[in-house]
Description:
Helices cover 2% and strands 28% of the residues. By secondary structure, it is mostly beta strands.
Amino acid sequence: AIDRTAIYSSGSGTSNLVFSYTVQDGDNSLDLEYSSTTALGLNGGSIADTSLINSSLVLPTMNLTGSLSFNKNIVIDTTSPKIIGASINSNNSFIDVSFSEPVYTTIGAGALTIADLQLVFNQNGGNASDAVITSLKTISGNTLVGGEIIVRVNIQVTGIPIGLETVTLIAKEDEIFDLPGNVMSNLETSN
Length: 191
């Protein structure tokens, strides 16, 4: 994990202080927490009550009552989904594509559609002359609902393949997302 610094932005004269930080690429946390009980620094300022008595800067023990992660479930996810595997069945009727995390056709919602993927066919001297995507399903043959990690891409091959032909699935640009909205790169392929 990369430790970052949040900057005080408002709250003087109130019981709530606001700190700001802009999430950057590479920032990821399943449950955001400060780095230690002494992570609060004043940077030349002060925190005091109305009698001007300085407040303790010791934060509650991490993951326990009063701590950030105990009181809030803040997830930071800047990692885009990826294609991590693909396998074609023995009769060349479908390709099971595995993703690094649940995927959607829009930000955090909707099932993938044929329009989200591009199939590239290379004959390479084989007998089959083309292949097209006919549908997307779950691996048990059900309709996709969104949030799948494995998607069955049903294909139709023209001609009889002899093992020289290849197919590559490519994620179309700005078409596949994870739950928080990170978009899959169109450089992601099944190869």
